[in-house]
Amino acid sequence: MAMMGKVRRLHYRQQKSVREIARITSLSRNTVRKWLKAPVVGEPKYRRGTRPGKLTAFHEALQRALKVDGHRAKRDRRTAHALYTEIKAAGYAGGYTRVTDFIRAWRQGAGQAGSTTAFVPLAFEWGEAFQFDWSEEGLVVGGIYYRMQVAHMKLCASRAFWLVAYPSQGHEMLFDAHTRSFAALGGIARRGIYDNMKTAVDKVKKGKGRIVNARFAVMCAHYLFDADFCNVAAGWEKGVVEKNVQDSRRRIWIDAGKQRFARSSNSTSGSVRGAGRCGRRSGIPSTRSSAWPRCSNTSART
Description:
The chain has helices spanning about 1-10, 20-25, 30-35, 60-70, 80-90, 95-110, 170-185, 215-225, 240-255, 265-280, 295-300; strands at about 130-140, 145-155, 160-165, 190-195, 200-205, 210, 225-230, 260. By secondary structure, the chain is an alpha/beta fold. Residues about 265-300 have low confidence and may be disordered.
């Protein structure tokens, strides 16, 4: 606004021409003429005209995909990178950040994203605890679509993890998942964190009171670790393994669901290889500790 006032004073008070004012202020003559003709109602603003970009042709496809995901369960919604991969295969030649900017703006506007809730992060010592959870994933084996139950065990400190897939969540599968995970991780933490699954908890009482399943209690006594159970509907209390469920679904199971396996052994071996790749990418430090019982000893007591 100060420059606009200076231009008007040079012209109307000092009788300077447009050419002289442009030379004095280093403004273009078109700008000087525009400011002299415009009414003084406020500071002039530059408005960039909207031009179609590389993403413009894909706005409708992204909005349609986001609306469809809005009706899906949260775990089945596509990530921004998944949507970027889809439109890139359709011919999009722009960058990834343009897609994330569009998705963020849509969710804050038309998408009406929910309010964010803050949580206090948990800290763990080495060998202190592991977290266990189940997830349900779909695979086509032998031409038949199966809902597989995947056991996730993740160490809270090192973030080392192991996945095993089963046809159900029975006690036999639960015990086998612990045995295989302890052997793969090289030891047993002092404490296990679980939700209130039926194979571990017979009855949930007030507060932290639990009637623990007898067979589950025998397994805990055999492997020498304490079982802690989360509060009801408080999955964030075992957020480490909950995040692992999301990451493994995006890294392994979405791609595996697009493949066709001749028999279950092929699907199992492929899933184990995928889990191994995820573990190596995470840069996991050693999980061995003299404070833990050696898994070679524990596995012998079956």
